[in-house]
């Protein structure tokens, strides 16, 4: 499902205009990204947790030149599914 499809389904399910549904989705995503950028966890109980995890500096091989290079430490986004979300995926229809 694309973001656009998600917005269309949300607008029908919540009886919102597509413009309002888009605003809700964009605001929610923006808030999650903003908090994770600040290294804060965002927990949506039953759904999951978004967070930034530190990835240590590491040495890698440049595939084009074959030379070793240092990749600096960085933060990467992580999502851990919540218990209810995991259980919902495990159920048969």
TrEMBL record:
GO MF terms, alphabetically ordered: DNA binding; structural constituent of chromatin
BP terms from Gene Ontology: chromosome condensation
Keyword Glycosyltransferase carried by entry: no
Pfam families membership: Bac_DNA_binding
Keywords associated with the record: DNA condensation, DNA-binding
SUPFAM superfamilies per UniProt: IHF-like DNA-binding proteins (SSF47729)
Record carries keyword Disulfide bond: no
Cross-referenced SMART domains: BHL
Cellular component, GO annotation: cytosol
Record-linked InterPro entries: Hist_DNA-bd, IHF-like_DNA-bd_dom_sf
Family, per entry: Belongs to the bacterial histone-like protein family.
Name of this chain's protein: DNA-binding protein
């Amino acid at each position: 499902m694309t973001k656009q499809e998600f917005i269309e389904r949300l607008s029908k399910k919540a009886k919102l205009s597509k413009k309002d549904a888009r605003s809700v989705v964009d605001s929610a995503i923006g808030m999650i990204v903003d908090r994770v950028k600040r290294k804060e966890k965002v927990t949506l109980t039953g759904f999951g947790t978004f967070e930034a995890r530190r990835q240590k500096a590491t040495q890698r091989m440049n595939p084009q030149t074959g030379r070793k290079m240092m990749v600096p430490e960085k933060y990467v986004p992580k999502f851990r599914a919540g218990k209810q979300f995991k259980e919902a995926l495990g159920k048969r229809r």
